[in-house]
Structure formats: C-alpha cells, structure tokens
Amino acid sequence: MTDERIIELYFSRDEAAISETDLKYGGYCFSIAENILADRRDSEECVNSTWFAAWNAMPPKRPNVLKLFLARITRGLAFNRYNERAAKKRGGGEMSLVLDELSEVVGEGNAADEAELEDLKAAVARFVRALPERERNVLVRRCFYTESIGSIAARYGISGSGVMSALSRARKKLKYFLIKEGFLDERK
Amino acid sequence: MNANDLYKSFDAVDDDTLANSETDRTRGNRLVKWISAAAAAMVLGFGIFAISHIIKSSGDDPHVVKPTEQTTDDPGSLAAAFAEIFKNAVLLPSADRIMFDGGLESWKAFYDNKGIPYSAVEGEVISTRYYLYWLNDEHGRSVAWGAAVSEVMLGSVPAELNKLGLAAGETVYVYDSVEMVPADNDCFRLMSAKTGKNITCVEDLEDVESFLFEITADDLVNYSFEPIVRDDTLPKEIGRKYYMLVVRSSGEAGSRLGNAYEQLLYCAVSVPTDETLGSLHAAYGFRFDQDIVLISEELSRIF
Which positions in chain A touch B15 (Cβ < 8 Å)? Predict the structure, then answer.
C-alpha cells in the first residue's frame, strides 16, 4: 500500500492504518529501536508505542515522508526508554557508545532547557546539511539511527576504520561549530 | 548541554538528509574510495619523507626547526618546492617511533589490529601557515596541493617521550599536509596509466600503505610544481586540538615500512576547521575534501 493511502486510513480513523503501517514499516522501526535498546522485547514495545503515537498525531499532522515521520517517533520513544533503563543502570550497547562519542563533543554539562534544545536542534540541522556527503551520511547513520560502525561500513562499502575516521572528523567539526555558534565554551 | 541533548538534537535533521543517508551516492565509486584512503597514506608518506630529511640533516641533538618566511624561487622544480616546504617542517632526531595524526582513530585501530604499541601526544595549534601549490601534469592538468606548518603547543606527553625533548608546554612546529582536491580525476587516471597498474579500491589502510611504496619515481617524472600562494591572512586555528599518535617503527612497522624509515620520529597532521576550509574555498575556489590524488616517492630521490 502506498504511504498516501496509509495516511488516508489514519485520517479516516480506520484501524487498518495500524496494521498496514506495521506491515510496511514494522521492521524498519524495530531496527531503529533495537539499535538504541538492544533488547527485543523493549524494542517491540517501542514499535507498538510508535503506532499509538502515530494514530494520535494523524490527524491533524500529515507527514511529508511517512517512513521518516515514524522513524523520529520510534527514535524518541526508544531513547526515552533507554534513559529510563540507564537510570536503573541497564544502559550499554550501541547507544552507550554513541553517547560517549557525543560526550567528546560537548563534555558533561547540565541538561539544556527547552529553548536551548530547540536552538541546538536548529543548529545541528544546519551543521549536518553543510557537511560533505560521506561525512554527513555516516554521522546521520551513527547519531540519528544509532547504527554500529560495522553496519555503517557495510552500508557504504567502506572499512570500519574509514567510518571511525569520518565520524572523528565530523565530531571535531561539530565541536568547533558549536563553539562558534556559542553553544560551547571555547575554554572547556 | 550534554550528550543526551546533542543526541536528541539530531531529531531535527531534515527528511532529505535522512533519506539520502539510506543510499550514499558515493557508494561503489571505487576511485573515490581509493582517493579517500590514499589521503591518509599521503599524509603518512609526505610526513615520513619530511621528517626523514630533517632527521638526516640534524645530527643527534634534539632541536626544532622554526618556520621562516618562504617564497619559491624555482617554480618549475618539484624538488625545490618540496624542499622549501620540508625545510620548515619539524623536528627531532633519530628515534624509534613514528607519530601520526589525521584520522587518529583510524590509525589507532590500524595499529591495534597489528598489535603494534603506540602512545599518544596531545597538543593545541597556536598558529598555522599555509603553502598552496598547483601540481601540473604533462598535459597541463592541475591539482591543488597544500602544505601547512603549524605551531603546536604540546599538552600531555607520555614520560617515555620526554627524553626526546617533548614535554608539556613545549612549542613545536609541525609539517601538515593540507587536503586537496584534483582539478579533475583524470590526473589520477593518468597516474594509473603510467604505472601500468589497474588502480582500484583499497579496502583498508594497509593496502594503501603498500601501494604507496610501490609507486616509483618515474610515475611522477613529468609533473611540475608551481607555487600559487603563500597566505598568512588565513584564519589561525587557535585553540584547535591537535592530536598525534606515536608508533614504534621498529619490529613489524619498521620492517613493513622498510629500513629507510626506521630512524623516523614522527609525522603529524591535523584536519582544518570548516572556517579554514571555507576561507580557502572562497579565496581560491578549492574544495578541500579528502580527495588527494597524488602520492610521490619522488621525495625519496630528493632527500
């Protein structure tokens, strides 16, 4: 079924929207959750929560790209669950590594407030858009999709060290971008 | 702000960017893959030759060669051009280590895989001076090539390196190859034709390294070097972190690199910031983009 048709099912409040979405994007969303959570049961619950959230969001929301709309929901839900688990000291996995890598960029500061976070999101989106294609893609696979180094290397047909090198460059650039934009203190 | 916030912020990456990441347009472009990998090798190669030259001429006492004002009097001479650049390079006398930067993690992984011991030095760039050149082939095609000399203040230094004259707070001058982009990829294909080798993708740094040392000086005999600018107005990358990786060149690494390199101390390179790259691009139209197309053993003849 086409995305347009699935979206219409949501708008007509037809519960077939859920099953059709699950059929088409269940695996995709599961892999996003699994990358973050590394736990089948938690990931399945996340995917089910994604359908629930999508059902509540549409209408009025009409996504431009349904797949990516769902990806963002799943990612957010999975990350929330990851943080809940981390509070209970059940973190680890790829997500833990990604956060460690991002800590290299921003250090161990206090959590941003809502306004700061919105500004940061806009800045990061600008930064990512300006990167060379290979670095951009590698960074997105790592920091949005939480994919492992090996998965990214296989996706693009490059070596693991090539992926690490690209990520390292991107993080250095991101750090200096955030300093330049005033998000980070240059002296730290 | 913390890592959680930064991770969340990637949620704002736009749909096009996310969608494009599913299929990389550069995927399968073996030439680009080779070039990208070759960039790392070139960094290594030029650095090694540079240091080799300096070490040979420096005797046994640790010393630092401070960069001086330079112009190239003999623009047609590859040797003169390289000699001028490398005259400004760093550093110290004979030792049993090589130090790297430029894709630090890649090199670490590479040597981890090989089981070769290394230690790392961290420094901070205080200033950088650039030397930019056109490298012309016999058909008039050109690639941009750049070098830089960075003034680096060392941060933490492993104790084992203190005896080499490296200590926290010391300022050293480091030769730094600036990444370049060819005017077109034909230049690389030309090299392929000259070597008679079918240059294809190299999957990892070891392949690049071995290829690096297979190229003969004849491959580049018809290239000339033409300086185009030395620019002191480019932004100083003050505060940029500068990482160097120290690797023992004896044992496996030494034998793989060959006896000629066993006395090398280190080479080091860093990645320019976006601001620098943007300025270079605006000023000269270059795209410094990881695409290095020339690797030269010509240097071994020069020195």
Answer: 64-65, 68
Read off the pLDDT of residues B194-239 as tens digits, 9 standing for 90 and up. 333 332 222 222 332 232 222 222 333 333 333 333 333 333 333 3
How far apart CA B28 and CA B36 sit, in angstroms, is 13
CATH of the domain at A132: 1.10.10.10
Which residues share a beta bridge with B219?
none
A111 in contact with B, Cβ within 8 Å: yes
Q: Which of residues 48-87 of A touch B (CB under 8 A)?
A: 64-65, 68, 71-72, 75-76, 79, 83
Enumerate residues 6+ apart whose C-beta is below 8 A from B114.
Answer: B252, B253
Does residue A185 fall inside a structural domain? no
- How many structural domains compose chain B? 1
pLDDT tens digit sequence for B248-300? 333 333 333 332 222 222 222 233 344 444 444 444 333 333 222 222 222 22
Q: Identify whether the C-beta of residue B103 lies closer than 8 Å to the C-beta of residue B142.
A: no
Q: Which domain holds residue B221?
A: 26-302
Last residue of a domain, one of A71, A87, A103: A87
pTM (predicted TM-score): 0.46
Structural domain range at position A79: 3-87
Tokens of B297: 């053993």
**Interface touch B6/A105, C-beta < 8 Å:** yes
What ipTM was reported for this prediction? 0.89
